[in-house]
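ASSEMBLY PREDICTION REQUEST
Request ID: AP-0331
Submitted by: J.K., bench scientist
Number of chains: two
Total residues: 459
Priority: normal
Notes: Please return the full assembly, not individual chains.
Input sequences:
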Amino acid sequence: MNTLTTIDELGFAPALQQEMVEDTTSDHALLEATRTGDQDAFAELVSRYRNQITSYIYRMTNDYDGAVDLAQETFVRVYRAADRYQRSYAFSTYIYRIATNLAISELRKRKRRKLVSLTGFFQPTDGGEPKELNPPDGRPLQDSELVDTERRNAVQRAISTLPEKYRAPLILRDVDGRSYDEIARILETSEGTVKSRISRARGFLREKMRAYL
Amino acid sequence: MRKNNCEIIRRELDELMLDETSSPAAVEHLRECAACREFHQKQTKLRQIVGGLGTVAAPPDFDFRLRARLANEASSATFHLTSTYWSFARRGFAVAAVLIVFAIGIALVRNVMNRPSEIAVKEQPAVKPPTPTPVETQKPAVNPQDFSAAVPENSPQKIKKERSAQMTAKVRRPAVAVDFSSQRAEVINGSVAASTVFPIDASLQSLKFSLDDGRGNARTISVPTITFGSQRVLQGGNQFAPKGVW
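STATUS: Completed
Returned structure:
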């Protein structure tokens, strides 16, 4: 009786290898395939980045529905500009740059439209620190999950009050865990500027989140 | 020096990822400096909270909506291309129409401009332009019959016919001056014109001239009787009165 010496001899090695190849197909290759009309390649790109991009835009805008729309717009732009895409930097940098520009553009639009949020009614007119609408909840907290939820909401609200130039690098660094180099390339600025802005953003947040620290 | 060192250590710690290990110098500093230790603890907690926000998942129908959006974009792009094509085509047709109208206009104007010159070229040999000495040059051209209107023996019907014929024939001819000075005046003898000559009272009949302009147009100039008061007074009187008596 012959003994199996390698795992390849089990018979499903080709399938495993193909799966690994598919998984490790680079973003560049997928976009290249998209350029030639391969819809499945584009679907793969979307499945890789849809959650990241939606989440990033949501952290930036603090509006889930708007974030989903902008995430879709991001993918539409990627699809439309597939012919013009240059492989000089990572695809993630490219798609995050598009998402950042869309999010910042949306924030500026909102500012122009002067869309007043519920929290906006409670902002002081004397130029002081804006206060969030956060009515005290007198009920006792049930468990630590509720505490975490409350803390996350507070952080999200605090982030949404940051100036946009501090908000994007903070989210990219502390939420998405990107490197300074990549953040600098996404925001098209220098690494020193990114570090400085992140440090200032954390300072702002520390002040706002003093009660939770 | 110590404060400067704290800033350097805090910056170093701030730039590290949460799971990254800090340098031995930073660890040593944190062990000694309570302020930096507290700062580092708060900073780490804040970053943990922020990092704990996690990733928000996209809605389940994200792909479906995206496909629908792309399909919609493609159809609208096709429509946009078609509408753009037709708008360009419409403009092209309009420009072509304007050019055609312009070309036709130019052709018409050129045609109209050329016509008089052709007529002039055709008529030039027929009509001799008046020269500085028209009297000499016009003489041979003048048909003696042309002056028949001025001749008294011709009947008025014939004159009219000739005039109308001349008018139709010489409608566009330029005016030609005819000099009769070289022609001998017709002499009316008493015997010849006995029947036609009738006595007139020269003192009462006005003097009339009939002139022909060469184109059959007769002009009659009537000169009124010139009377002198003294002559009237003396009409029936002594014409041989002594000098100085009226």
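REVIEWER COMMENTS: The radius of gyration of chain B is 60 Å.
SIGN-OFF: pending second reviewer
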